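Changelog excerpt

This revision adds worked examples to the README so contributors can see how folded entries look when concatenated. The first example is reproduced verbatim below.
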Amino acid sequence: MVRFLNCLFLISILSSCVSPPSLESDVFYDRADIQRDEAPHVANSLEWWYATGWLNDVETGDTFGIEFVVFHFSMNGKKDRLLSNVAITDVSADRFYFDHTLVGLEDQLEATLPLQLSTDHGKSKASMSGKFGEYSFIANADHEGESFYYSLKTKPNSPVVFHGNNTGYEDYGGYAKAGYYSYTDLITEGEIEVDGKLRKVKGSIWYDRQWNCGSVLQNRTTGWDWMSLSLNETNEKMMLYRLRLKEGLNIYGGTLIHKDGTYEALKGDELQITDLDYWKSDNSGDRYPSSLAISIPHENIELELKMLKEQQELEIKILLLVKLYYWEGMCEVNGTRNGVNVTGRSYLEITNPENREN
């Protein structure tokens, strides 16, 4: 979303390995540089290219959510792996489709552009290409024997946002630090296929680029709530997170992006995220917050974020008997900005949900 989250999601995936990823090849600069950091980082501990969005059928207006992510990580600084996750939420049909692919690479990824990232195993294929907001995302996937597909192209509608107070490095309360920038509004067109029906779609994608995320994996009990929000009436956007180190100990932060494209970092003491209600998954047995209260007092922002569809939980099968879960999906937003009612849309990601205060 820092989309650090999945760094946090991958805590679970990689916890089955002997040790967390090696941090020796992670390189930090004073500022992020999109010309350098859009490309893969050689032998990076953990990095990703992440897209979530709201799309509409150009003929019927039906709403769909999409997720596309490629994770790149190196356990020992030598052997590279790629993990792709893809998903579609069909709002009108009340369906959720997801799939994943984990592959090992014979050679290390090189720091080259344009991006050419792909995974291919069995019925599941995912690929991403492009650079600097102009991307192609393609997924040919299988959900419980039912195929789904999308092919999407994007172009930027707003400048890149460098998180971490415009440095492009988000500091998580001194606990961890990672490179992070976003395109918050990528104009998106293409096609999707679910339930055997091919549809032309258009809408907007939020794109996150993060790297050097392996440090958070040193604590395998860490949990993460990450969210992107877009307000309809004010045309403002937000990236917010709650990093849950252990029960009762949370780190908060984010970025507020104004209508004119300027933005500012949100410090931990300026932001409150509170669970309001919960949903328990019949599949995993995990309990996730189904609605959240968001308060940013100095900006006069009071919002409630609520799951648009509760069943947007993803299941990742790494080994034959190992299943791992996290929640990521579409949410609706209601509340006030400077005392005036506002509405909006969001994508929310939740990992390790049992590690929370209430």
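The second example, added in the same revision:
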Amino acid sequence: MKYFNIVFFFLCAVIFACSIAKAEELLTVQNVFFKSSQDNNAVVFVQIQGEPKYSYFRLDDGRIVLNIENSKIIKKGAIIPASSSGVVSEIHFAQNTPDMVRIVVGSNVKAPYNITKINGGILISVGSSTPLISLVNGITSELQNVVPYNYTPEKNQLASNQTSQVNSSVSSSSINTLNVKNSKIIVIDPGHGGSDPGCVANGVQEKIATLGVALHLKPILEKMGFKVIMTRETDRDVWGRPNMPGFDADESELQARVNIANENGAALFLSIHFNACADPSIHGTQVYYYTPQSFRYASIMINDIAKVNPVYTDKPIRRPFWVIKYTTMPSILIETDFITNPSVAAQVYNPAYQEKIAQAIAQGIYDSYKEIYQ
């Protein structure tokens, strides 16, 4: 028995040492750079030393996905090109799993691309099926506009009435009640939660702020005659289990929210988020949709929220966010406001603020349901 214990201890020590060695072997993604040319070509240069193993693929919406194995990234983030009409719309980069970094490049689905290992990193060329080596020259010395990972504002759609509607309000007495025999199902998804804090700025965690608004929203909708299902009612992961077959950890978490809406036959789906931006002065709501059936829902929601909060973009923005792309009913995602704005951050945990936003969202849901289904 003594001999067995010694051998067992030795094996455990070897395994532990191997695991430490493996962790230390992770290559480091040091930075991500973007550069475009006048002929509508662009490159994304992923700076990484060593010989990285990687794979890549393209999604149906045109996004290019690069997975770098056995790697870690110093800091996740995003780059939003200054021109909204270029061949690349956005670049997001983050730690996808403990030993894999993922780079996602938004692009036109028809644009050719090429991914090549070059000295100092990996080159993603967009607009050309061959490497655009000439564009890389001097790229690491250029100033990059790196912003928080989930940054998506479109400044060219900035609402002209940001300040004119700030003092308007929707009172609880003006909220209508549905006169329907059977309550319709509304699925409310407070973004992030549990292991995923979402945006963090000015002492605010997005996951806490979204849940606060959602918990105020639920009873308002129930008084209107809706049946409300929440994807979460506490600070937790919605999935929180081994990955779904064919999905990574992030996708499993998002698909779990989609499944709740689809399997319950929801009439409408709403995902609540708060935004972040490198510019702390930016303030206001954005509403996203993906499917054509969701456009009117998004438009109505903007109009109702604008009565209590400035809007950053006065029209719905089409984006293939997972939870609004794969749900089968009209679905929208609301970026309530920017917690990187200190004045906004000071309010978002306040119950009065959460109630105000919830009242406006509830009215938007009521008005949308009435137009779509009645």
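Reviewer comment on example two: The two ends are 77 Å apart (CA to CA). The CA atoms of residues 51 and 100 lie 14 Å apart.
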